[in-house]
DNA sequence: TTGAAAGCGCTACCAA
DNA sequence: TTGGTAGCGCTTTCAA
């Protein structure tokens, strides 16, 4: 009788904690195993099943998932890391992921890296403690520590929102460089020649940097002179970024006739600042965004932008993860490890 | 030797799965308990601690949280349900919660109810399986099933974003009715007399309904004639709601001189529609929002709105939950079970 | 179709 | 300061 953590229950005592599987079993007059089978949907005689279900309902029994995971050796967690939950972009991706994974009873473990790679590593380490079946990260830049943790964990990994040459494991995204180049070409086709770029000052927003790189490459390729780049403000780029960035651009290059922004947020801020300064959009100044947020469609003038299927990134990631966790033995062919997501310039009135 | 789930490891075999605490113990030449103590930060001789730490690093050992939770009888999960992760309002609340809870090693289990009470119940049931230490819900309306589940679970519960007369357990929020009434008074003080209201058509957005109720009460109390209410569109109310709602309002009551919107999103949509129709804001039509999103400050004209401390709701909720989980034995006094969050009309240019 | 026993990986408890 | 043992609540495995 030594070493008992909880005092033995005296017969007739009210059960102390929440009901356990053995309580259900006793009430239904069956063994624990039968209860377990009913819960798992395995074959059990109809009459037995009904008695067990009744006992479950009567006691309000909820099975302990931690115990189940420990015993069966597989958890139902999927770890997901995004730079920011507030961004509609990433929250759409999360919605796409849930939509795919929830029907399989998988539980998302969500984390918000705040565009901070060290924080990402801390979160990965902390989430790995729950033995997730797989993990989805944003971007393809990670600390060495993060990579090491992931490699050692040997679980399927998807990197989202980018298209790295050599992903850790799998990737679902698109080339931000190419998308930005397409926007420059679009602006050039519309007749703009003095095109500026408004981006963030932080090197942590890799996707923003890629867009900047694409802008610079295409400006050079098209012979549109020296790039006109303003880098201002921290990630994530917010609406309030647009106004001061536009002012800085016009202060340095007053003859600019179009501006391409790292996101719809800053494009919106820039357009509102144009309203304030009496600059007509697009007549005096064209403004283009990136992301095709709802904001871009509702703004006056509606914002020309690059639409990206954020929800699709989530749901395709979910599919890859499902395939990888369900059939872990069948390694995917390399060409199936990278999923390219569509993107396109959406022409509206602002540019 | 029967009933062994995994075949016994032959001496010299490479360990099959990830390293376990016993692997670390063996490598460091100590018992599992000592490893456990090092991880928990309990007192261990410095030299021993260092050897153990070295073994942990060498193996890349990550402790299994499910096993720990099962053994110790307490998990590190906190369940959190919000209507929508995409809304900056609720994602701010989540940030406030994380900021308070993460330092204590607590892991958020986030769920998105999509403004659907049945879905809320499903999520609560599913999260309860992980034996969370406590749970935070949004709003004070829940299904009977949800209430029953929560009562039976006997864990601390906080209802956020509302101020119910009788909370399930604890509440952190404010009265949406009172806040809306203050906005009507503000508009009246500014000289507006024909004030309309733009809200959603769904009865699921309780906070939106409360704001409508506050509007109606105060319009009557101030003798401002019959309420002018347009209810259009599903929850959550988005930017695209504003334009058609404004059109409907003006079609029915062309002489309206001010409009109060259920959220900054629809206020923004309404203002953009005013731009399109050549209606000057606030000269021809005042527009007020609710929530004080970044959008409201960046819009041209900047939007007069009700600011609510969304982040504060999260961090105060975190404090309550910490107090309740850490000192579960000390029941809070009833007057400490309800935390009122400040809100205030922010006067800007739009009204 | 059902049951009994063992054990998943960890921590509480007591002993040394 | 450290170690041994029992057991958390469940599922796997095999037997009936």
From TrEMBL, chains A, B:
Record-annotated HTH lacI-type domain positions: 19-72
Organism domain of life: Bacteria
CDD domains in UniProt: HTH_LacI, PBP1_GntR
The keyword DNA-binding is assigned to this record: yes
UniProt-listed Pfam families: LacI, Peripla_BP_3
Alphabetic keyword roster: DNA-binding, Transcription, Transcription regulation
Protein name as annotated: LacI family transcriptional regulator
Organism for this UniProt entry: Paraburkholderia unamae
């Amino acid at each position: 009788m030594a070493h008992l953590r909880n005092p033995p229950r005296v017969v007739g005592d009210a059960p102390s904690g929440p009901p356990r599987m053995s309580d259900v079993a006793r009430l239904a007059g069956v063994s624990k195993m039968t209860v377990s089978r009913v819960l798992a949907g395995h074959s059990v005689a109809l009459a037995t099943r009904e008695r067990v279900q009744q006992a479950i309902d009567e006691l309000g029994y909820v099975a302990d998932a931690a115990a189940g995971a420990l015993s069966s050796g597989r958890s139902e967690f999927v770890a997901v890391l995004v730079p920011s939950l507030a961004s509609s972009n990433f929250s759409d991706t999360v919605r796409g992921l849930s939509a795919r994974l929830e029907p399989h009873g998988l539980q998302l473990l969500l984390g918000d890296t705040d565009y901070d790679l060290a924080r990402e590593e801390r979160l990965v380490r902390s989430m790995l403690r729950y033995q997730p079946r797989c993990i989805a990260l944003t971007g393809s830049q990670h600390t060495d520590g993060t990579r090491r943790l992931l490699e050692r964990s040997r679980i399927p990994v998807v990197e989202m929102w980018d298209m790295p040459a050599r992903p850790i494991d799998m990737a679902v995204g698109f080339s931000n460089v190419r998308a930005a180049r397409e926007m420059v070409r679009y602006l050039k086709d519309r007749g703009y020649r003095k095109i500026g770029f408004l981006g963030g000052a932080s090197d942590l927003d890799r996707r923003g940097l890629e867009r900047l790189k694409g802008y610079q490459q295409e400006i050079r390729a098209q012979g549109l002179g020296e790039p006109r780049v303003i880098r201002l403000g921290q990630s994530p780029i917010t609406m309030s970024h647009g106004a001061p960035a536009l002012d800085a651009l016009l202060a340095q290059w007053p003859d600019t006739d179009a501006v391409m922004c790292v996101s719809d947020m800053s494009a919106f801020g820039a357009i509102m600042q144009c309203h304030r300064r009496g600059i007509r959009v697009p007549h005096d100044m064209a403004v283009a965004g990136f992301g095709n947020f709802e904001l871009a469609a509702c703004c006056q003038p509606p914002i020309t932008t690059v639409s990206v299927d954020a929800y699709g990134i989530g749901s395709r990631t979910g599919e890859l993860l499902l395939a990888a966790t369900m059939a872990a033995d069948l390694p995917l062919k390399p060409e199936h490890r990278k999923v390219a997501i569509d993107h396109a310039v959406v022409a509206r009135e602002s540019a």
